[in-house]
Amino acid sequence: MEQLLTSPADATDHKSFLAKKPLIISGPCSAETEEQLIATCTRLAATGKVDMLRAGIWKPRTKPGLFEGIGTKGLPWLQKAKQLTGLPTTVEVATPKHVEDALAFDVDVLWIGARTTVNPFSVQAVADALRGTDVPVFIKNPVHPDLELWMGAVERLAKAGVKRIGLIHRGFASYGNTEFRNAPMWHLPIEMKRRLPELPIICDPSHICGNRTGLAGVAQKSIDLDFDGLMLESHIDPDNAWSDAKQQVTPERLAELLDGLTWRH
Ligand code: PEP
Ligand code: MN
């Protein structure tokens, strides 16, 4: 990575899209209906504790037959949520068409999901679609604990000219039932922080835990490790969410959870 940074200004660029630390990103796992998305986003904004809105528009699901996202028709809903709240937005992209559509609807920040980071062809296609744009991009760790693949995705984007790259730690799959849906394996994101100190790294407790009870503990741990922010899923009716129902919390519960954390000064 060192050789990909051409000047000290490049290093500041990477951090510069985090308007503040900690950066708090929240929103539903998936955009479902216009009403659900707007209500979730306006209630999140009303807490005054969220800096950026997230919504899954295209959902890469492990198994077929599950809800695979509302698709491009959800983008105008997210654009409306942005206009109503004044908050920037972020969306997962996995293909060049996703990049094109998201940018056409004013999405501010993109992220690459864990199931895409594992695939160099997909990452390269997304990187090529980003060439010539100046949009910041977060890269989630790959599903399995392979740091070189995570590094490779960073390098592909950097080589395509993406100047503002961030990392998202969402835990790593392991076989069998554990306390976590995706084990945090904290030593791995810590090693990424050591290798790429100029890149912001935020934690996604929702996909690490896969339940509501563990969220605060994982969020606190990431703050104690000096992560730069959090991405947490929120839904107006978590139990009836079309994806990731077990781990989502209402906007008001999210605010309580954030209030209960001890922040670094
Ligand atoms: C998500 O953010 O809803 C998602 C699908 O996450 P991940 O790529 O971490 O599984
Ligand atoms: Mn999700």
UniProtKB/TrEMBL annotation:
The keyword NAD does not apply. GO terms for biological process: chorismate metabolic process. GO terms for molecular function: chorismate mutase activity; transferase activity. Keywords: Transferase. Its EC number is 5.4.99.5. This is chorismate mutase. The chain holds residues 1 to 265 of 367 of the full protein.
